[in-house]
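quick one, four chains, predict together pls
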Amino acid sequence: MLDKKGIAKRIAQELRDGWYVNLGIGIPTLIANYIPQGINVEFQSENGILGMGPFPFEGEEDADLINAGKQTITAMSGACIFDSATSFAMIRGQHIQLTVLGAMEVSDNGDIANWKIPGRMVKGMGGAMDLVASADNIIVAMMHTNKKGKSKLLRQCTLPLTGVQCVKKIVTNLAVLDIVEGGFKLLERAPGVSIEEIKAATEGRLIIEGEIPEMVIA
Amino acid sequence: MLDKKGIAKRIAQELRDGWYVNLGIGIPTLIANYIPQGINVEFQSENGILGMGPFPFEGEEDADLINAGKQTITAMSGACIFDSATSFAMIRGQHIQLTVLGAMEVSDNGDIANWKIPGRMVKGMGGAMDLVASADNIIVAMMHTNKKGKSKLLRQCTLPLTGVQCVKKIVTNLAVLDIVEGGFKLLERAPGVSIEEIKAATEGRLIIEGEIPEMVIA
Amino acid sequence: MNKVVANAQEAIKGIEDNMTLMLGGFGLCGIPENCIAAMVDANITGLTCISNNAGVDDFGLGLLLQKRQIKKMISSYVGENDEFERQMLSGELEVDLIPQGSLAERCRAGGAGIPAFFTPAGFGTEVAAEKEVRYFNGKPHILETALTADFAIVKAWKGDPMGNLIYKGTARNFNPMMAMAGKITIAEVEELVAPGELDPNQVHTPGIFIQRIFQGAKYEKRIEQRTVRQKN
Amino acid sequence: MNKVVANAQEAIKGIEDNMTLMLGGFGLCGIPENCIAAMVDANITGLTCISNNAGVDDFGLGLLLQKRQIKKMISSYVGENDEFERQMLSGELEVDLIPQGSLAERCRAGGAGIPAFFTPAGFGTEVAAEKEVRYFNGKPHILETALTADFAIVKAWKGDPMGNLIYKGTARNFNPMMAMAGKITIAEVEELVAPGELDPNQVHTPGIFIQRIFQGAKYEKRIEQRTVRQKN
């Protein structure tokens, strides 16, 4: 089974040289720490920066330089700054090659819910609806089950949707799955995780064809 | 009767302090030379500058600093530069208080034609359609009749339209007229021009009420 | 063209109860601190505030929320604010949540004279309820309309008396679009410079969009999430 | 991220007959001189060119027109070009004339994933023929759709290997929107600088929109209307 870092490491393997990448809050943010050698990517933060760098050294924080999670950041050499309309022009106009975000639920046709629990949690969708409606290449990074042990990979989402039929790939603590016609197609098992465990943790339709290899994580 | 400079001088009297103004090619361009004392206006050129200044001194021309007529210009202190989308955001978003442009024909309901003579002249509308469709305050500066002596103030335009029911005021070599419900309302006569001459040169409906004063031009 | 006013108190003159305001900023970054404080003092109530976020409990728009001066928020993300959540869940506060990109584009559209546009964001979700759906290139889009405000209040780094503005870093965010969309737009700046000091080529917001400008005092610029790494 | 190519010849690789191009510039100001020359040499034909103007007889897009390499122009103003007028009136050249603001906004929309928007420009004119009309606030608007291109070719003053661009003066014009709307966008710059030399705060076109960049040679920057005043 993977921890959050492991999920981030596995997703980092999906990065390709020259890509622009938008990382959501939570597990996705960790991916920046595990970029494979020889791969050059640039991170876009939807509040208006391309070429986001690591956190600043203590004492060098700048209140005017934050990411979409409101964390203090730095700018890489060659970075650029822009307004929110231009930022979402990049997103909506499909200039970003990969979007990784967390989810509360994903359904086996690619619907995603991650912004609202009616009557309880009201934070808003932020940029998530723009991201999922626009991106061609969306990976969801999340735990396979919620804190109560219930599956987050469902036949149908129960929470208000963020987007429909948009998720292409999911990396969880248990597995890597693609969303294809007919359901979640199991591609890889997390180290030490059996197919039975994945079946038990997946409520939506699960497609298992042939040998399912164990993930290889450096 | 006014010459082109006179038309420009008369329109300059319409300027109010603090206005942003877009001047079209031809007679309108001349208005910049006759801004009344104590009045501060800024000129917008739709190719992307606010705070357009006079022509450069000889030898100081900059190929990268032109107006919408492709003439070399200068920038005033406090000028700013922007792209064409932002420029037309200013125009369409009604941030400009006065637009002055030339016309080939104006009808007595405020339609204007100034971009095309089918089969003969094909220059394109440039920014004129955006300007006339957007501006609240449009003055047309033109000669009352064309080179063949035919009226340019018509019951109905014969050339392809640039915009409909948008012109508010016309200043010609013969008169100042507002466009109101029912036609061209004569406001002022050019120096030495009789009402009969204006009637004869106006094909569209002309409204004449009370005494029509002669223009006062400094 | 001199649009300079003395201070925030003078700048907010004319903002009345029940008006609609736009306020720049993302989180606490790039917010018009001085004008917010002046509106708290002035006790203006019944406000509809268009702002990406709603501040935190004790800063930013949170200060207006605490005093119940806001009737309705139009935002994209309102987490990290307990008082907001309490007022919203209890029904005291109306809230209209909008995808962040649609919010930015709707403000720009309002300022640019584009009354409506199609976007894919929100199709198939609550956000699309009662909105027109149309397919372009086989992909569903919804029709979103422009937003404008009685007053827009933005914060910039530098500005000149004509209202030309330059922002710093990610404090730019929503400020440029909101500057375009106010019937009256107020800019507060950290430094008011003389005409001609800003390079025309580097102005972010052309002065034409600004009606009032002043140099703000004592910017706190609070950091919401102070994250650092260690020197090794 | 290094997008640098050696020169215009290399930059235009992949531009084929019958493709749709966007070309930045207003008149002869801010046009991609090097790429135009390279396309003349390469004899690419049947092009659809989206550009505010069509150059003059012997410069800018006029060079491609002379060699009959252009099948269709999508522009707002095409005066000052006799060969253009001749080809258009004789029917050799297809021409789609678009209001300048709609042209700019349609390019931006193409780059920004906005498939269509409403604008008042052109209502009641030829331009509105067959377009949807809708009233907003009592005012008629027409629906305009986004423009994109197989290649967009822009000209900037300075650029870096990531593709970040800074324009100079009114040579900016259509370049930033067209840069957004190309499936592949080529930037030619007067000066290619090292990464980090451009202030992130002052970049006009973020590098994400650019796929290829090179430092152009021998810019003529011809002036179309040399107007001067006398020193007294």
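Residues 100-112 of chain C form the longest helix (13 residues).
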